[in-house]
Predict the 3D structure of the following.
Amino acid sequence: MFSKIKDVWREALEVARLQDELSQLMPQKDIKDLLFKFKVISENVECPHNQSHILSFVVSMLKLPKGTDGVIMEAGCFKGGSTAKFSLVAKYLGLQLFVFDSFEGLPENEEDHNQTIDGKSIKGWFKGKEFSGTKEEVKSNIQKYGEISVCRFVEGWFEDTLPDFSEKILAAYIDVDLASSTRTCLKYIYPKMIPGGILVSQDGDFPLVIEVFDNDEFWLEEVGCEKPEIKGLRKNKILTIVKPH
């Protein structure tokens, strides 16, 4: 019980901190409207994220240099709750949001996930076909609660769709659960990000995913650069990389 209370308190403090950052980036009336819409989405769409996870990326999006050519992208959208939220901010910024997902759930895999870095059991969570949302379901949720006009949907497995993606990426949000999917996303997304671009992963509490992010050899041989600074590594669920200039 104490652990749950501690988690709730920590989340409340982080949300308050992020809302304070937002107040430096948006008019108060726009923040109030955005947070109300986020609340409506969370009440109507199954969202396996905390408010702080979404706000951390929203703050990153709002800090992007104005007028820079490029797009926002999301890898892994489940039922479209996070997508609907990000689409509202993309619309506000006048940017397109590219949504990558199989729309069939997770791929078949043999990854042996046991628990998070804080001891929470996740054994059996990430079987093939889990966390599935059909494209029609996702689009319907965004149509109701977000801004579908700014969304572009890319259907398929990441290894099939990401290699041919040619847009410049300003910011990317990765929620893919698996170490294998994380490798694929980093390999093909990071090189296409602009200097100063921001990559956020929601999977920083999974040990197998941490191993990918913290693998110097992987960064050099597969991504093609030295491992960048990764904020939150081995400490937080949210990992953030600002691509060096």
The mean pLDDT is 95. The chain is about 40% helix and 15% strand. The first strand starts at residue 71 and ends at 75. Residues 45 and 244 are 36 Å apart (CA to CA).
